[in-house]
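Need residues for this backbone.
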């Protein structure tokens, strides 16, 4: 259930973006060479990795799960988080350009209201993308992934050669659009017409619009279905 965003949402989003880029992605990269994160109970984190290990954010805590042991620490600074999971801060140089500052003293503290709002947004995005992927099965859809450098949950779907491939995602907000939003971004520039010309990247449905609709899940489903229909045709 979406609710009006607390005033602290933007600062919390920035803090958790830094945690994703500089602690969670490096933790996964050290184990399997990948950086993608996923929606998890109460927030986001790594998928379950080798030997059943994962690191995830749950509310205002960082959780480290291993078979037979689960430990938690409050979110305070990047340095504290990195020491808690025993990983050096930051990914190897050149892997990608981080968009948040990487330093041990960077604050990642968040309040309960902002953490709850972000969790609700990730939950909604994960549900909508999973339903869309199932509905359009066989269109070369990737698994929804929370990319640490963008800090949005997204997947690709469609035919590259036919010009229908696009990114479908749920962003918690960024420099382009401050509030959270759903989006569909066609890869082929010539497809960015009509509803796909609303933003530089394509089509978007804003958090405020989802709230005003009264049924955010239904409105989000309709948005993705309409965009997918225009790009891909009938399911």
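Answer:
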């Amino acid at each position: 259930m979406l609710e009006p965003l607390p005033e602290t949402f933007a600062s919390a989003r920035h803090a958790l973006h830094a945690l994703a880029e500089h602690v969670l992605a490096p933790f996964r990269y050290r184990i399997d060479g990948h950086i993608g994160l996923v929606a998890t109970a109460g927030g986001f984190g790594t998928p379950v990795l080798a030997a059943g290990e994962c690191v995830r954010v749950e509310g205002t805590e960082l959780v480290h799960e291993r078979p037979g042991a689960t430990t938690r620490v409050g979110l305070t600074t990047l340095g504290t988080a990195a020491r808690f999971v025993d990983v050096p801060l930051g990914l190897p140089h050149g892997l990608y350009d981080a968009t948040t500052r990487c330093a041990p003293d960077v604050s990642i503290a968040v309040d309960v209201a902002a953490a709850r709002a972000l969790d609700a947004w990730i939950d909604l995005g994960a549900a909508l993308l999973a339903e869309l992927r199932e509905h359009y099965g066989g269109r070369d859809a990737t698994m929804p992934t929370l990319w640490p450098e963008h800090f949005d949950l997204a997947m690709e779907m469609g035919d590259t050669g036919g010009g229908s491939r696009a990114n479908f995602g749920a962003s918690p907000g960024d420099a382009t659009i401050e509030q959270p939003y759903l989006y569909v971004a066609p890869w082929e520039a010539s497809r960015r017409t009509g509803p796909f010309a609303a933003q530089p990247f394509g089509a978007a449905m804003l958090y405020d619009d989802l709230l005003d609709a009264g049924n955010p899940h239904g409105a989000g489903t309709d948005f993705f279905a309409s965009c997918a229909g225009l790009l891909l045709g009938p399911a």
